[in-house]
Amino acid sequence: MSGPITILRIHPSDNVAVALHSVRYGEVVGDDVFALGDVPAGHKISLKAIDAGEAVIKYGYLIGTASKDIRAGEHVHVHNLHGALAGTVQRGGYQLAQHEFKSFPEVIPTFEGFRRANGSVGIRNEIWIINTVGCVNHAASQIAENATKQLAAQNSSIDGIYTFNHPHGCSQLGDDLIYTQKLLSGLAKHPNAGAVLILGLGCENNQMQSFMRYLGVDTPERIRYFNAQDVDDELETGVKLVCELAEYASQFNREPVPVSELILGMKCGGSDGLSGITANPLVGRIADKLAAMGGTSILTEVPEMFGAEKVLLERALDPCVCDATVNMVNEFRDYFRRHHEPIDENPSPGNRDGGITTLAEKSLGCVQKGGNSPVTQVLSYGEQAATGEGGIALLNGPGNDGVSGSVLSASGSHMVLFTTGRGNPMGFPVPTVKIATNTPLSERKANWIDFNAGTVADGTATLDRLADQLFSLVVDVASGRKRTRNEINGYREISIWKDGVTL
Q1: Best CA proximity match to 487, nearest among 429, 421, 402
Q2: Angle (nearest 5°) at CA 378 between 374 and 383
Q3: What is the model's pTM?
Q4: In total, how many domains does the chain have?
Q5: Minimal CA–CA distance to 8: which of 370, 347, 463, 339?
Q6: CA 12, 18, 22, 25: dihedral to nearest 10 degrees?
Q7: pLDDT digits (tens, 9 = 90+) for 132-156
Q8: Count of H-run helices and E-run strands, the chain
Q9: What is the pLDDT of residue 37?
Q10: Where residue 224 sits, what CATH number does that domain have?
């Protein structure tokens, strides 16, 4: 073959390759293999004849079976490939890797962070207003706006005042209420907030007293709270309390902190066929760099582990972590069944347009974000990740962008690295670094994208070189030297997982 490389065979055992650029009919794509039709960038093309019922292999793993005979050089997608996920993940039989772990370097790089009174570290010094119920959303926004103006006049050093509106907290029972409390309490504990105002209404199911007991407060001077029904003027009261909190939070200054205390949330959204080749493995290299220094990365989006469990299970630190991973995945599969949803039809219309056909294919690309680091923690929804453990934490949560990004924030991620092939403007409570899988997206949506991994597919950069550049960006964002697009645009949102009863 001559000229620019247009396809990539990811693993030697693969019987399909990915088109790095659009392939035209008749183009040479392999030894004596010609494209039998046009194949869009990011989509699959067969490298050999595949019989109906035969396994289709990508990343070295099964992504599905051929639904009809496929000729060499043919476009492989929804018309000739279907999923083949097993019903449950079997327990045992995994060859756990032997990890040389906790042998971190003596000299660990630092970033400039805020050391809190309880010993935790933040990368921003903001004030967050947490609403116990959606009824006070507008009041919270107005308090934030009025307090921002008042503190600006006082030349406050606070990085900003933010509230995260949501529709929940009232008429909720069971798991719905628990999920709301877990998510909101995780945000209230987050060290990126130097101080927190908790605003309630007074008559909601998510009662202030029970929520405060659920939250637990180890630094009382960091928290203020009240119900709007209990005061004459909720705006005046809220602004007064925020100004008190600003005075407390202003005592914190940036200081050198080892990156071993950094927690990164890894997620993808609007994936395409290049996600598992460019941006996701790039983020995986960041996870490996961080783990080698004792830092932690969090992976969630459990349905996007379906079909890729073996990749994660054989990297479990010990049998207990392996068993916890099996339980988490199987319980999520049961969750799908309870709601009468198939477990193998997850790829969205955007995913399919980008070249992803089956859930196993999507999952095998998604888990690239974890690199090759050991899995050291398995967390329930909203549970806080431990710092200094190194490696990867697996967090229970769905694939939905809003819900997964929110729970990554609530579980302690200082920032989220968000890879995308189709684009998404969404941001979360913490700085959200958007990483494009392809150059056209990076150029078209420059107001959304912080980093372009598409140059790997273009052949103008290597993953190793980009990993050094992206890690430098992570340190700059953590140190406050750079702000992400979501911060500049003011895109900060939360979404809460909903499964139980609504009255």
Answers
A1: 429
A2: 135
A3: 0.92
A4: 3
A5: 463
A6: 60
A7: 999 999 999 999 999 999 999 888 8
A8: 14, 25
A9: 92
A10: 3.40.50
